[in-house]
Amino acid sequence: MTQPFLTNCIYFKTDLLHVMKLLFKFFLIPFFLTAVLSCEVHLEDNTRILVEGTIKDQDNMPVPDAKVSVHTRRGNFSGGENSYLLGEGYSATDGTFSVISFYNKDEDFAIEVAFGETYSTYVYKSNTLNFTPVNLTFDLGTVSLKKMASFNYNIVRISGESTSITYSFRYIEGFCLESFEGETLSEYQSACYQERFIAQTLNDNNPDYEWLLQVPLGEIVEFTYSINDEPEITEFITINEDNYDFTFSY
Predict the structure, then answer these.
(1) Rounded to whole angstroms, how far apart are CA atoms 235 and 195?
(2) Number of separate helices (H) and strands (E) present in the chain
(3) Is 187 within the bounds of a domain?
(4) What is the C-alpha separation between 173 and 245, in angstroms, rounded?
(5) pTM here?
(6) How many C-beta atoms surround the C-beta of residue 188 within 10 A?
(7) Do 169 and 242 share a domain, yes or no?
(8) 145 near 95, Cβ under 8 Å?
(9) Which of 172, 177, 175 is nearest to 218 (CA)?
(10) Is residue 120 part of a domain?
(11) Quick check: is 56 in a domain?
(12) Which of the chain's ends, N or C, has fewer CB atoms near its CB within 10 Å?
């Protein structure tokens, strides 16, 4: 029986030879071998898959030149150190894509659709240990990406010492993870355009603060604040510019 291809994701460098000798000296051979073997990726022999679909934005317009990449061991959100790229391609001018890739049976198989910081990121995840798609084709249908905006906020104290503020921002993140069991979407394991919440208190030790958030264009950011423990006040900010500057003085 033909064995699957074996690709090792650890690359040795000459300057690591001394470290390896020390590992052997201190009887860490079993641990070292376990680390190496845990990083192996098995590619299915003589097997290629097709990944296809169409990418559109929130206005139902096609998104060209978005990158479509196929990974194993990617991780759920920003990607892991052990992520291994199996194949990639780009969407056409009409938003359609068709990518041929190697195939790997792993509990952490993923397809990522991204366009830098200009648009949100979409990730399709599946456990392929006991699942192979019909005709070796992953049809993602229509993938919706959202145009992203930079929300630059600056909290500045102008009222002098002993004045404090406690504030929070509630917003929608620009990330969508859909996790599947076979062909069934798992709501429990998915996280698509979720609401995020950040809060902070400013006082004499740290009176001012400036930060940047990435928010889908057109979304509403909820800003709630309380000065010197007074009743809270809430403002709603519609992000209607690619670079939205928000300054609040207290």
Answers:
(1) 17
(2) 2, 17
(3) no
(4) 18
(5) 0.76
(6) 8
(7) yes
(8) no
(9) 172
(10) yes
(11) yes
(12) N
